Amino acid sequence: MLENYHILTITHRNLDVEEIGQFILSENDGEGIDAQLHRLKEDFDIDEMMYLSTCNRVSYMFFTEKVIDQSFIAAFFSQINADAYQKMGVNSEHFVSHFAGEEAVNHLFEVAGSVDSLVVGEREIFRQFRLAYDRSLEANLVGDHFRLLEKYTVQTAKEIYAKTKIGEKPLSIVSLAIQKLLNTQRDTNSRILLVGAGETNSLVGKFLKKYHFNQVKIFNRSLDNAKVLADYLDAESFHLSELDSYHEGFDIMIVCTGASEPIVNSKNYQSLLRGEEDKKVLIDLSVPRNIDEAVVSDFNTEYISIDALRGVAESNLQDRKNEINAAKEIIQRKLREFKKIHQHRQIELALQEVPKEIKAIKEKTVQEVYKESIDQLPEESRKLVLEMMDYMEKKCISVPMRLAKNTVK
Question: pTM here?
Answer without folding.
Answer: 0.69
